[in-house]
Design a protein that fits this description.
Elements: H1 2-39, E1 43-44, E2 53-58, E3 64-68, E4 73-76, E5 84-85, E6 97-100, E7 106-109, E8 113-116, E9 124-125, E10 131-137, E11 143-149, E12 154-160, E13 168-171, E14 179-185, E15 191-196, E16 202-207, E17 214-215, E18 225-230, E19 236-240, E20 245-248, E21 256-258, E22 266-271, E23 277-281, E24 285-289, E25 297-298, E26 307-312, E27 318-322, E28 327-330, H2 337-340, E29 347-350, E30 357-362, E31 370-375, E32 386-387, E33 392-396, E34 403-411, E35 414-422
Antiparallel strand pairs: 1-28, 2-3, 3-4, 4-5, 6-7, 7-8, 8-9, 10-11, 11-12, 12-13, 14-15, 15-16, 16-17, 18-19, 19-20, 20-21, 22-23, 23-24, 24-25, 26-27, 27-28, 29-30, 30-33, 31-32, 31-34, 34-35
Length: about 425
């Protein structure tokens, strides 16, 4: 019995040791998964095509479309896990953009707006035969399409009041060749259409009644606008050639150039809130701002293909499409923790670990702009971003659960990330 007891205890010790090793391995795997997820930024999706993709549009977190050359229309119903090519009932023209008012009804634009009423299974041409680049609807029946009348060489704005069955053709005016490339609406009355070319230079048209359009002064810094986006009734952004990003804070009355840090062609712009926005362009360029355009940081990108469109379904989840069938996805705003880590000499955060509040000290009292954002270990924002107006401020973190977080700070364009512990 004595030996049997010793043998039993020895066997139990071995089993315990094996289980302990297994537990450590599982923990190591979990830590590796967390680290990989934390460092992930933009990840390439399998699109199933090598055709150039011009636009992305999502009607929900799961369902979205990507369109491109040769009549390409791809659809996902599972958040980009799978992309399926829809039957081509449009032809071989380039599908420059798409817009859906609900799960079934949508428009794809090329030589004219094409309409589907069955979620993209079939498409029927509508009545305007011009080169159309973008379309947007303000309700189920009233919408606008913008592009170019190649016969007269003028930018056009088309309007429908019956859900796209009939479109009226209006010339936007201007001398020489020109086209409108993008359109966005702030509300059911206020919208903007942008483009340029030829003697017109950069073009932005505005409506304040959802009916009549008039030119909005742009200036000479940008002679072709490809993308435009407004975050509210006053603040908007326009991007285009030579790496130019322009911003208005007075509803398009005046536009000022922002420092983008690049000279490549910029194609698409999208904002997830008043401060956080993205711009994409040639050579795999993805820029991000978290301070309303005051500074732009280039994000790591797994491709050097030209990128044409960016779209987000929520604050963290976004998609980018481009040449050679490129589709990229991020689930954390494109920011990996290791990417952002840099010198923290411009700012101090204490105590750390902290319980209920963080004290923020900016070491340069003459700073111009500063912001702090608290994220979890996979880059998700857990508290609203805070604009710092004083060199010493306090942030309440009492609502956070215990654990590890990251404080992302931007002071006069210099970005730092510091690990903080909530006790």
């Amino acid at each position: 019995m004595h030996y049997n007891k010793v043998f039993t205890l020895s066997l139990m010790n071995k089993l315990f040791f094996i289980l302990l090793l297994m537990k450590k391995n599982v923990l190591l795997i979990l830590l590796l998964l967390i680290e990989t997820n934390a460092n992930s930024q933009w990840v390439a999706q399998i699109s199933g095509t090598t055709n150039l993709l011009k636009s992305a549009y999502f009607i929900s977190n799961d369902t979205g479309y990507a369109t491109g050359i040769s009549g390409t229309i791809l659809k996902t119903i599972n958040g980009g896990v799978n992309w399926n090519a829809l039957s081509n009932t449009i032809g071989n023209n380039t599908i420059t953009s798409a817009y859906f008012s609900n799960a079934d009804t949508g428009f794809a634009v090329s030589a004219c707006p094409y309409k589907t009423t069955n979620g993209g299974v079939t498409w029927s041409p509508t009545t305007v035969y011009c080169t159309i680049f973008a379309v947007a609807f303000i309700n189920h029946t009233k919408g606008f399409a913008v592009g170019c009348d190649m016969g007269q060489g003028e930018p056009i704005i088309c309007q429908t009041n019956n859900g796209g069955s009939y479109w009226s053709l209006n010339h936007a005016g201007g001398s020489g060749n020109g086209s409108l490339q993008s359109i966005c609406f702030v509300n059911s009355h206020v919208g903007y259409a942008a483009g340029g070319g030829g003697a017109n230079g950069g073009l932005i048209y505005k409506t304040v009644d959802g009916q009549n359009w008039f030119p909005s002064a742009l200036g000479s810094s940008l002679n072709f606008v490809v993308g435009i986006y407004f975050t509210d009734s006053l603040n908007g952004y326009a991007v285009g050639n030579y790496g130019v990003i322009m911003k208005t804070t007075d509803a398009g009355v005046n536009w000022v150039s922002l420092v983008s840090g690049t000279t490549v062609q910029l194609e698409g712009v999208y904002f997830t809130d008043a401060l956080t926005g993205y711009v994409v362009g040639f050579n795999g360029l993805i820029l991000k701002t978290t301070d309303g355009g005051n500074s732009w940081i280039q994000q790591a990108c797994p491709t050097t293909e030209n990128l044409f469109s960016v779209r987000f379904t929520d604050y963290n989840t976004g998609y980018v499409v481009g040449a050679s069938g490129t589709i990229l996805k991020t689930i954390n705003g494109g920011v990996g923790i290791s990417e952002s880590t840099s010198s923290c000499e411009n700012i101090s955060i204490f105590p750390n670990p902290a319980t209920n509040q963080l004290n923020i000290t900016i070491n340069n009292s003459n700073f111009i702009s500063a912001q702090i954002t608290i994220t979890n270990i996979i880059g998700e924002k857990v508290l609203p971003s805070v604009i710092l107006s004083l060199s010493k401020e306090t942030i309440d973190i009492s609502t956070l659960s215990k654990g590890m977080y990251f404080a992302e700070t931007i002071v006069d364009g210099k970005k730092s990330v510091m690990k903080i512990i909530k006790e």
